[in-house]
Write a structure and sequence with these properties.
9 strands; alpha+beta
Length: 401
C-alpha cells in the first residue's frame, strides 16, 4: 500500500472545502457532536457513581455492613458475641437492643427508633455516633438524638425528655405505656433526614431494664467489615446451629441500589445515542465526499491505486474526525470534572441528597466502557462510506465526468 499517497489525500480531504462547504460543516458537526457526547457521558457516569457511593456511605453509617439477628427469643447472647469476637478479631462488633418510642419535651413530641448500645463499641463502627459522643461520659439514662428530633423538641444539653415505649405496664384495671425521663446530652447529623428525625441512642443497660430484657441478651449485633461479602459467608458458617441469622447492607437496601444501577445503565445507553447521532454526520460527510470526489477516485483507480487504498483513505478520514472528537471529549470531560469537584458550581439540598456538594466519582470500568463504545460507533460509521467509495464503475465515471 502506498502510504505517502494515502496520507497526502487524507490531509487534502480533511482541509476545509470551499467549493463544497457543507461537507466540511458536516464533518465539524460530527466532531463537535462526538466531543459533547463523550464529555456528557463522563460527567454523567461520574455523578451517578458519586451519588451511589455517597448514599452507600450514608447507609453504611446507620445500616452497617452486616447485622446479626435472632431467629427466636434469647438466641443472641453475650456468649455468642464473645465467641465471634475471638474467632474474628479483624471485625468490630456492637451489640444493641432496639425499640420504637415516642419522645416528648414540653408540648412537642416526636416518634422514632431508640437503640441501646455500648458507647465504646458503637463508636468504633459508627463515625456519626462517635462525633456526637465526643468526650462525653454517657450515664445510664442519657440520650443522643438525631438533629431533626432535637431541633423539633428544642432540646439543649442537660434538657429532660420523656420517652414512651410500646411496652405496656399493668396499673390496676388499665394498661399504661412504659415511660422514663432521659437526659439529652447531644445530637448527631447524618446528612439524611430519615435518620436525623427518627434515630436515638442510649445505653444498653437502660433499655435492658425498661424493656425487661435479661442481661447478656441482645436484639442484634452490628458488624463493621471491610469485605462484607466475604465475611458474611464466613460468619454464616459460624452461626450454624445458633438460631441466629445474618443480613448484609445490600440485602436491606437491595431495591434502592438495583434501581440506581438500572438508572445508570439506562442513562449510559441514552447518552451513547448522542455519539451515535453525531456519528451520522460522519457517515453523511464521508458519503458527500465520496459523491463529490467520484472523478478523483476513478482517476486514482485507473492509475493503479488499489481498492484497499481507497477504502483506507476514507476510513482514516472518518476515524480521524471521530477519534479527535473522542479525545477532545475526554479532555473536556476531565476539565468539567475538575471544575465541578473544586468549585461550588452546582449545589444540592443536603436534606434531600445527603450532601450539599455534587458527588463525583468516575469508575475506571465506566471510563473504559465509554471509550470502547465511542470507538466502535466511530469505526462502524467510517467503514460504511469507505466501503462505498470502492463501488465505483471507473469506466462509466470517466466517460460521463
Amino acid at each position: 500500500m502506498n502510504k505517502k499517497l494515502v496520507n497526502f489525500i487524507v490531509k487534502k480531504y480533511l482541509r476545509f472545502d470551499k467549493k463544497n462547504p457543507f461537507i466540511s460543516i458536516s464533518a465539524i458537526l460530527a466532531f463537535v457532536g462526538v466531543s459533547i457526547g463523550v464529555m456528557v457521558l463522563i460527567l454523567s457516569m461520574a455523578i451517578m457513581n458519586g451519588t451511589a457511593k455517597e448514599f452507600e456511605r450514608k447507609l453504611f453509617t446507620m445500616n452497617y455492613p452486616l447485622t446479626i439477628y435472632p431467629k427466636m427469643d434469647n438466641s443472641l447472647n453475650e456468649e455468642l458475641l464473645n465467641k465471634l469476637q475471638k474467632e474474628y478479631p479483624n471485625l468490630k462488633f456492637s451489640p444493641f437492643i432496639s425499640s420504637q418510642a415516642i419522645i416528648q419535651s414540653g408540648e412537642a413530641m416526636s416518634g422514632g427508633m431508640i437503640f441501646g448500645v455500648v458507647p465504646e463499641k458503637e463508636a468504633l463502627i459508627n463515625p456519626i455516633y462517635k462525633d456526637a459522643l465526643g468526650n462525653l461520659q454517657m450515664d445510664k439514662y442519657d440520650i443522643i438524638t438525631g438533629s431533626g428530633i432535637s431541633d423539633k423538641l428544642l432540646l439543649n444539653g442537660g434538657s429532660k425528655a420523656t420517652l414512651y415505649f410500646t411496652e405496656l405496664n399493668p396499673t390496676g384495671f388499665s394498661m399504661m405505656p412504659k415511660m422514663k425521663r432521659f437526659t439529652y446530652v447531644n445530637s448527631f447529623n447524618s446528612g439524611l433526614n430519615a435518620y436525623d428525625k427518627s434515630y436515638m441512642y442510649t445505653s444498653l443497660e437502660a433499655l435492658q431494664i425498661l424493656l425487661k430484657k435479661e442481661p447478656g441478651y441482645y436484639d442484634g449485633i452490628h458488624i463493621h467489615s471491610d469485605d462484607a461479602f466475604a465475611d458474611m459467608e464466613k460468619l454464616k458458617k459460624s452461626l450454624r446451629g445458633t438460631n441466629s441469622g445474618i443480613v448484609g447492607w445490600w440485602q436491606q437496601n437491595g431495591n434502592f441500589f438495583a434501581a440506581m444501577k438500572m438508572e445508570k445503565t439506562a442513562l449510559f445507553i441514552v447518552l451513547m445515542l448522542i455519539i451515535l447521532v453525531a456519528s451520522l454526520n460522519i457517515i453523511s460527510s464521508l458519503l458527500m465526499t465520496v459523491m463529490s470526489r467520484r472523478k478523483e477516485i476513478a482517476l486514482l483507480l485507473s492509475m493503479g491505486a488499489t481498492a484497499k487504498e481507497i477504502k483506507t483513505i476514507f476510513l482514516r478520514v472518518g476515524t480521524i474526525i471521530g477519534f479527535a472528537g473522542i479525545l477532545t471529549g475526554i479532555a473536556l470531560g476531565f476539565i468539567g470534572y475538575w471544575l465541578l469537584d473544586n468549585f461550588d458550581i452546582v449545589t444540592l439540598p443536603a436534606d434531600v441528597y445527603g450532601s450539599a456538594k455534587l458527588p463525583l466519582d468516575l469508575a475506571m470500568s465506566d471510563f473504559v466502557s465509554i471509550i470502547i463504545g465511542a470507538v466502535i460507533i466511530v469505526l462502524v460509521s467510517s467503514y460504511y462510506p469507505a466501503s462505498k467509495a470502492t463501488n465505483i464503475d471507473v469506466i462509466d465515471v470517466l466517460r460521463n465526468e
